Protein: PTS glucose transporter subunit IIA
Organism: Rhodococcus opacus
Amino acid sequence: MSLSVQAPLPGRVLALADVPDPVFAGQMVGSGVAIEPARDRGALDVLAPIPGKILKLHPHAFVILGSAGGGVLVHLGIDTVKLKGNGFTLLAAEGDDVDAGDPVVRFDPTEIDGTGYSAICPIVVMDSKPDSVSTDTIGSDVTTGDALFDWTAP
């Protein structure tokens, strides 16, 4: 099984080690990368990075289970669960089937900046082994829908 994961939002790609959260930085949830969101576009529609079913949907995070298996978590900001949904708009529903590129959540990273929380968005393959995704895009700028990384189950 393998997944080709697209950038769910525009910004600069960072290593998970650079995420200001020990769970993501330590790859305890899974391997992946993070995106420091673009700040010059206002509110951003965060898109499904893979085709599949929305397994979990919260205002600040969602998991899509790929059709071949394998789930991808997109987490919008760090500790943003504490905002209780403020600043986030759901554009899809839990259980929806989505194609890569379908809108799931809308948020404005500059609003998150104003709360004191980090707007960095980790994108990880759930339960994958540490350092198991390709990280060629780290340090580059991506636009929504660009190839972000590939992952192949061991």
The chain has a mean pLDDT of 95.
